[in-house]
Amino acid sequence: MSPQRKLLLLGTFVHSKTAQHLEFLHNAAVAVDEQGKIAAIERDVADASEAKERLVKQLGWNEAEVDVTEAAEGQFFFPGFIDTHIHAPQYANAGIFGKSSLLDWLETYTFPLESSLKDLSKARRVYSRCVRRTLAHGTTTATYYATIDVAATNLLADLCLSMGQRAFVGRACMDDPEINPAYYRDADAAETLRATQQTIDHVRGIDPGFDIVSPILTPRFAPSCTREAMAGLAQLHRETSLPIQTHISENLGEIQLVQRMFPEADSYAGVYDKYGLLTHKTVLAHAVHISEAEASLIAEKKSKISHCPCSNTCLTSGPARVRWMWDKGIDVGLGTDMSGGYSPSILEAARQAALVSRHVAMGIHVPVDDDDGAAAAAAEKERVKLTVEEVLYLATRGGARCVGLEEKIGGFEVGMEWDAQLVSLSQVSDDGGLEEQDDSDGFVDVFGWESWDERLAKWLYNGDDRNTKRVWVKGRLVHRRS
Ligand SMILES: O=c1[nH]c(=O)c2nc[nH]c2[nH]1
């Protein structure tokens, strides 16, 4: 790889200051050093020459070493998206789920596809496309499930590193003979741990500091793992501090299965706690049906939740309650959960999070014969709805907190790394663009009178990968759309 150049970026920068507040920095300049770190941020800069004058000199840089990127009128820089739960092999099935729900979906669509990716040429096709496509959608960090196949999992890690996507790559652990089909499972817990170690060793070999790509311990979900495998992975976590990902309480049939298979635990979260998997570095996907007591346990253990609204709708799992999770003090991020969810886009997941929160609101019963109760229910209906600011926070800083990278990514601060996207919306010309055939800027039409808050709302609800013109990870340009 050629040595990285310093960057100077100019224009409007938008990022979450808090879950409720987006900050807009107009006429700003951001300087990024050759390690991909933000070295300086300057406001009220008139143009490139003033930025160079002020920043390049202030930092003692040589102008010849700096590449300048200027956002055009109406464009803005936004932090890269963080997908806290995505299944790379399932990219080939995105959109294919029929009327299935979790357990029959796994059996019908998912296990056959995943097992077929032991064919490395097939794995290369699917994984290359998945990484390319998610980068194009602005996903700068992805927390991937791979398959049980070590060689294919290692290939996914290689591809993320070479294409420059920050990634957690998990070799799926599945050794229970009851749920996992004979054609797609580990022989036993020892095999699970051996194969997991092989992927850890491989990733350490290609990225020794786990700087861009890190392994993640991946007990698929409680029903697919034996007690020995879960306890062994927990031990590995204690020895290595590696993060953990799994699924929890997505579907009612799944929860009954867990109750039957693990009678020694009082809940689904209790199973993970009993076998040492509920840690501050654990990301739990879904959590649609967790109880008050489970949410309190998850909060106490500082485990995180990946909210996967698109998947929860597609597989008819149910609407997860983000406001309630936040009330409990749990960190929440967004997951596409492709292909439980049909889309590889975190912008789509953010939009779905906003919509699902409105379904949660619509599900709140308003009593007709109790005025105080009706007023309280009406207020709660309003409160549970997620705003544009909140879902964009989930897609960036919220996700960064989930994967333990909040000091590095998710926002624009000096010392953080430049994981970002340049977003462009269509500027409608004075004649309404009657003659234009070109829709390469997508269909977010900006007429010019919208406030910046309104532009962000338009992007959230109507944007797609055509609006994402450039993507950087750690200062490296990893995607460019002409
Ligand atoms: O949405 C999901 N996708 C999966 O692949 C899976 N495996 C277990 N539970 C799961 N849920």
TrEMBL record:
Biological process annotations from GO: guanine metabolic process
Record's keyword terms, sorted: Hydrolase, Metal-binding, Zinc
Pfam families registered for this protein in UniProt: Amidohydro_1
UniProt protein name: Probable guanine deaminase
Keyword presence, RNA-binding: no
Cofactor: Zn(2+)
CC terms in the record's Gene Ontology section: cytosol
Pathway stated in the Swiss-Prot or TrEMBL entry: Purine metabolism; guanine degradation; xanthine from guanine: step 1/1
Higher taxonomy: Eukaryota, Fungi, Dikarya, Ascomycota, Pezizomycotina
Function noted in UniProt: Catalyzes the hydrolytic deamination of guanine, producing xanthine and ammonia.
InterPro entries assigned to the protein according to its UniProt record, in alphabetical order: Amidohydro-rel, Metal-dep_hydrolase_composite, Metal_Hydrolase, Metallo-dep_hydrolases
Family (UniProt): Belongs to the metallo-dependent hydrolases superfamily. ATZ/TRZ family.
EC numbers, comma separated: 3.5.4.3
Segments forming domain Amidohydrolase-related: 78-478
Substrates-to-products reaction catalysed: guanine + H2O + H(+) = xanthine + NH4(+)
TM segment ranges: none
Signal sequence coordinates: none
An example Gene Ontology molecular-function term: zinc ion binding
